[in-house]
Design a protein that fits this description.
alpha/beta; six-stranded mixed beta sheet; 9 helices; 40% helix
Amino acid sequence: MDIFHQPTRSWFFDGLNGLLNMEGRMMKIQYELKDHVAQLTMDDGKANAMDWVFFQEMGDTLDRIEKERARVLIIRGRPDFFSGGLDLNLVPTLSPDELNTFGQIFSQTMVRIFSFPVPTIAVCTGHSVAGGAILAFSCDLRLIVDGPYLIQMNEMLMGIPMPSWLLLLCRSAIPQQWHMEALLHARAYTPSEAVERGLFHGLYANVDGIMAEARARSEALKLLNPHAYYTTKKRMRGPDMEHALALYREELPTKVD
């Protein structure tokens, strides 16, 4: 498997038998491209929970960003929420087969962002929990707004063993001395605590400030040579992630014969 040459998003949704009704709904993800910088904004009006539609829109938007040859990608949330992670109202309703498909969609999406061929910046505008934290950790740079928000990997509280691909992704973002408390002890951090520990790269008073910083960093990052960046990132992350993904099926929490 070459994680740097992802298949098109459509195969994820083959066989879902019409579970998605793509008409008559509000878009969860907005996209704009300006001066070679792509901005992907998650806003479902609530907690930016990840469901079937979220992943469909995310995949389609990432396809578009690659096609339009953006030089930098900014991923931001709505006021008070970056993302609360997987939709916990949806997950209990899924059959074992559907749950495994949903897990595969989630892992492929996070790994795709982790392996994305241009620099990525997470602009965390609020709570970043579980899958939301993983999405932030998938990005090269992580900026966060100060406030009464939580950043937490809560899988140990939820009874979910972390798969190898996820541990590799998190270890790339979380300094080694904090692996125990962040991953095994499910420590919940405030924005300032997350920055102090190096999980995030900057703390900002408000959305205007964080977006100004994201744009400034984008101006520098878009000067990087695209081929050199892509090739070096592939060499840094590709072999280890491909090995971790090879363990995916045997590490599934739900086995289907």
